[in-house]
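F.,

This is the one I mentioned.
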């Protein structure tokens, strides 16, 4: 891992370090990459420097929290000096939202903590995790930190996840596998796993094998082939669904996520959970769950902007992988991505890091229209126009 790269939205370093220390384990150095270059801590940018960039690198919601969420958080600043503050009933609100019981809910400081807690719960004792490659790597990094292994199944040629191959690996290695891992929609591609394929996986792996399904980008999905996996929890299957308020509610910097799972699974995970969550964001989370109209408006704005700029890129001759998330991956026509990232940075635009082995694709988070205009202007300065492409030509 390139230690110069900033950590992603969900790297809960402090919590993992504490837990691993308590277990007498040595954390993987890659978990502590934030702000480091050549072994030294790098100072963060000033406010002026930070605000000067168009930030399209970290799959954030650049619109910021809606008024309903801001009002809810602002109203509880008076509890900033308290430990035992009212939390707005966040666990009950999540449980009611999903039709589960409070004992089926575990809070985390972003869904990143949830992914790491799941890894710590089920991968000790040199157990393996099965997932695709590339995907969101927190679980793999946690496995490395506790000297567990990952069985990574390459994506199909169309960049979809190879569910049959993952199922085969799970059954072939059943005695040594501690966790089956799906990200839906996937990061970095943005592609969904169709509901029928998720169902095939859930019902084809060994019945006692825990299945972690990361639904961080659930709220942006438009494909009718997709479905959330929460119903499997209601059936009592060993399924853990991870969600976050970082995306649709724009609370990435406030850190709030959660898991939905059977009560006995939640109880196992709780032993590894730190859940250091502030008073404000819990109230913001409750407000977000209630503001379904606001969520729908945010989804429409972000997806509308995504479609506009995907069409522009394809008209310019650069195919884009179909995405149901708030980001997309564009093919660079044979160019390696790292130099392109640097060229965009020089133009004041931050874009996604490399995702091996897809090193000739660039991940772009959907920003505000003016930020996307800056991106498109830079793209046309960096790349020459090619023959128009379309989804049918991919």
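My design for it:
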């Amino acid at each position: 891992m390139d230690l110069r790269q900033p950590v992603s939205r969900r790297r809960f370093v402090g919590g993992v370090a504490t837990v691993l220390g308590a277990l007498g384990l040595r954390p993987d150095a890659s978990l502590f990459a934030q702000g480091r270059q050549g072994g030294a801590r790098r100072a963060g940018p000033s406010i002026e420097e930070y605000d000067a960039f168009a930030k399209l690198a970290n799959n954030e919601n650049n619109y910021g929290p809606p008024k309903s969420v801001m009002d809810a958080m602002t109203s509880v600043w008076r509890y900033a000096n308290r430990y035992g503050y009212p939390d707005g009933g966040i666990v009950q609100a999540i449980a009611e939202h999903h039709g589960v019981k409070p004992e089926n809910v575990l809070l985390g400081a972003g869904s990143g903590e949830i992914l790491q807690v799941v890894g710590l719960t089920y991968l000790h004792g040199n157990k393996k995790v099965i997932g695709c490659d590339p995907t969101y790597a927190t679980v793999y990094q946690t496995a490395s930190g506790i000297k567990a292994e990952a069985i990574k199944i390459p994506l199909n040629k169309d960049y979809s996840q190879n569910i049959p191959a993952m199922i085969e690996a799970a059954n072939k290695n059943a005695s040594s596998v501690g966790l089956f891992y799906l990200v839906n929609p996937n990061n970095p591609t943005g592609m969904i796993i169709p509901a029928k394929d998720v169902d095939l996986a859930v019902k084809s792996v060994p019945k006692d094998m825990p299945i972690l399904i990361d639904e961080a980008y659930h709220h942006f999905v438009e494909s009718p082939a997709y479905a959330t996996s929460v119903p499997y929890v209601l059936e009592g299957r060993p399924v853990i669904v991870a969600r976050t308020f970082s995306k649709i509610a724009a609370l990435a910097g406030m850190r709030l996520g959660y898991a939905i799972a059977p009560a006995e699974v939640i109880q196992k995970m709780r032993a590894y959970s730190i859940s250091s969550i502030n008073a404000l964001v819990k109230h913001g989370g409750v407000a977000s769950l209630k503001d379904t109209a606001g969520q729908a408006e945010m989804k429409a704005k972000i997806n509308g902007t995504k479609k506009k700029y995907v069409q522009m890129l394809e008209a310019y001759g650069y195919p884009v992988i179909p995405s149901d998330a708030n980001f997309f991956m564009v093919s660079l026509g044979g160019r390696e991505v790292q130099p392109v990232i640097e060229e965009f940075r020089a133009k004041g635009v931050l874009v996604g890091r490399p995702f091996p082995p897809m090193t000739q694709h660039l991940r772009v988070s959907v920003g505000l229209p003016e930020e996307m205009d800056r991106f498109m202007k830079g793209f046309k300065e960096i790349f020459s126009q090619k023959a128009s492409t379309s989804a049918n030509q991919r």
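The radius of gyration is 20 Å.

Talk soon.
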